[in-house]
């Protein structure tokens, strides 16, 4: 039976936060992604920033608790709070990052929560400072789609979301493998991780939207420079992509669920084929791109990822742990390192919070976990 943090442990974590973080910077990025758009230079700069083989994680505090099936996280700029989606309730809630107070913005119309589907990923418009648009990926009765909504905090709680404007639709849905992670990249294009909805064939079919990473404009059109003519498809051969993050050199990484053998962390190259269902894990042959790291499914079952302090940080659902994968370019510079094993149960989403901090959500109320008192929660971590 997994352990849970006691009140005393949380008090110690709060003291650590006061003592160790009061001088830190780390305002959340205004796009809601876990990427940095800055470049650090050429190969010598990359070598200089290659992280050590071993790192550390310190849980600073519980930011909020009592969340129902949290899935997507989108930090508001300037310390304005954290938006979190509820997969099953179909609502978006603002969490005050200092007090943990929760305010429901409203429900997203048309969400059909069933199985692994519902209200999933969130991202802020790259022009959020002027347009106040929140993007959401969600399951309907017929498909998975992306819509954007105006967020007006001046309206009463429960009425702060405008009517959804559908940006993109027609992504295959299923009881399983709905993908769901969305993020704006450093190029201000919208990236969408999809699943093959439990059907193997769509992943290798470039005309299908299932089992893909999609790249589109904020209006849902194929992004300039995409590898296939007049198509939003960016990469294919994926089983179920739920993690997207960029490093300081604007390189994209993605995590996806394997079936019975290997979960994967991939370095993403436009137009590449990542093998599913013909290959799972490394060694699939020259047609397919091998992952840079892989895990047995009981050790990971990865959902969200973030980039911080030279490493990718990956949340494990079935694995109930946070993985650190130190990077040297697009390769792992050392063996992945696990943290928090079994301490907080299933982990769903990871977002870089600046200043060597991460926000991590648990996922114990999703029907596959073992909820404890306080679940589900958002944790704040210090990582090195």
UniProtKB/TrEMBL annotation:
Keywords: Signal. Residues 31-41 have a biased composition (Polar residues). PROSITE patterns: PROKAR_LIPOPROTEIN. InterPro entries: 6-blade_b-propeller_TolB-like, Glc/Sorbosone_DH, Quinoprot_gluc/sorb_DH_b-prop. Residues 24-54 are annotated as: Disordered. Residues 67-368 form the Glucose/Sorbosone dehydrogenase domain. It holds the Pfam family GSDH. Residues 1-27 form the signal peptide. This is PQQ-dependent sugar dehydrogenase.
